[in-house]
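Two entries, shown back to back:
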Amino acid sequence: MRIRAPKDFWAGLVFIAIGGGFILLAQQYRLGDLHRMGPAMFPTLVGAVLAGLGAVIALRSLVFDGEAVPRFYARPIGVSLFAIVSFGIALQWVGLVAAVARQVGNPGNLWVATTTGRVFLSKNANGSAGSVTFTRLDSLPGATAAPGRFVTSIYIDRSDSNHAWISYSGYNFNTPSQPGHVFSVTYDPKANGGAGDATWTNLDGGTGPMGDLPVTALVRTTRGDLYAGTDFGVMRLPNGTSTWVVGGTGLPEVEVAGLTLANGSQVLYAATHGRSVWSLKIP
C-alpha cells in the first residue's frame, strides 16, 4: 500500500497521537456520564474527536494524491522553541505588569505591580517618557511581609499618595512566611536616611471570615469600608475594625473579577466570571 499524500499521512498520525495522549491522561480522573460529567469527560471527548479526525486524514492519504512532506528546517523551529522556553523561564522571575493605579486628582502618582509581586511607585508618571522614575517598594528593608505572589489590584488612598491597599491572588502555602491577601502598604520616602522604606500590614492573615481566599479586586468607600472581590464573592472590612464580613446578600458564590465604585455614587458594581454584573447599594 502506497502513501499517496505523505504530508496528510503524517499530519493524521500527529492528530492521533495528540488525541490519544488526551484520552490517556484523562484516565486518572473520573469520567462520569453525559448527565453528570466528570473532569475526564471533556478531555476524553476532545481526544476522541482529534484521534478520529487524524484517522480520517491518514486514511485519505492512502487514496488521494497530495503534497509531499516539505523540507525540514531546523533553525527557525529551534529559534522559535528557544524564544518560547526563554520567555517561560524568565516569566516566573520577571513577571508581567498585573495592576496599575493612579491617584485620583494626582495623575503623577502611579503605583504599578507585577505577577511576581513586585510593587513600584512613581511620583512623576505624568512627565515625558524618558523622565519618569520608579521606586521599587517590595524590596525595601521594611517590606518583609510582602508576599511574592500575583498582585491583582491596587487602590490608592485619596488623601495620601504614599499609601495604598493591595490585593494578592494565590494561596498561603505558596508563601507560608508571608501569608495574607489584602495589605495596607505605606511608603516613607524619608526613612533610612532618605533611601526610603515601605511596610506591608496584613489585613486578613488568611484566617477568620476572609479565609485563605485569593482576592481579585479592591475598592474603598468614602466612609472607609474596604470591599474585596474573591473567588467566592465579595467581602467587606468595615472601617475601624479588623473583622471581615460578607459584603452583601443576593450575590451567588462565584468569582468576582472586578469591583467598581462609581464616582459620586454609593453603588458598588461587581463583575463576575460568567454570572453577569451585580450591584450593591452602599449603606
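entry 2 starts here
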Amino acid sequence: MKVLSDKPSSVWSKNLKEFKAFNQKSLQVIKRAQTIKKSLTSLVENQTNKVVFKDFENLYYSNFLQSYYLKETLTLAYVKLLVFNNLIFKNAFLMGLKKTLQKLYNKKVFLNLVNQKYFYLNSDIFIKVLATRIRDRKARALIEMRKALSKVALPKFNLYLSKKKSSLNLLDQKIVNSIKYKHVNGIRIEAAGRLSKRLTASRSVFKLAYIGNLKSTDLTLNKKSSVMLRGGVKPNLSYTNLNMKTRNGAFGLKGWINNN
C-alpha cells in the first residue's frame, strides 16, 4: 500500500503562489480604483456628471485583467486561429459550405481544394493581398509593391536541375521534367489611380515594379513551340486585374506571374 503524502506537488505550490500574488494585486487595484473614483466625484458638483463614474471601478479592474493576462489571451487567440485553419479542410465544415453554394447557384457543386505553400504562386491571391496593404493610407504603394516582390524566391534553373538529377531516380526525373509551369520565373505589377496621401486635389499616379522576366523558357531557351490559350493568352502567364476604392478615390492593380 502506497501512502499519499500531504505535501502538495511543485506544480500545485506554484499555482498557489501565483494565485496569492494575483489576489494581492487585485485588492491593491480595487483600492486604487476606489480612491481615484472618490477624488473624481469630489471634483464634480452636479449629480448628472457623477453618474458617469458609476462603472469606473469595473472598467479599471477589467483593464487590469487585460494587461495581467495579456500573454494568455494572445496564446488563446493563436490557438483559435490554428484550430480554425485545421477545421476548414474537414468534412463537417465542407459539407455545410457545399450546401450553401448549391442553394446559391441552384446546381451541384464540387469542391477542389488546393493547399498552397506560398501566396505568390497564384496571381489572384498575390494581387488581393497587395491591394489590402496599399489600401491603408499610411502605406506607400511603391514600397509595398517592392516588399511583396522581395518575398518572391526566383530559382536558378541550372543549379536546381543539377541537384535534382543526382538526388532523384530516373522515373522521378521523368515525372518532374514532364510537369510544366512549376517555377516562378518573374512577376510584374502595375498600380494606377488615386494613390497619393493628400485628401484634397489628389492626383492619379502610376507605379511599376517587377522582378525577373515574363519570357517563356520553351520559346527563348529551348526554342520549342508553345500553345496559345483563348487566342492571345499565353499558358505560362497568369494575369489578374483588380479595382479597389479608398477615401481619396479608386485605384487599379494589374499583376502578371510567369511560371516555367
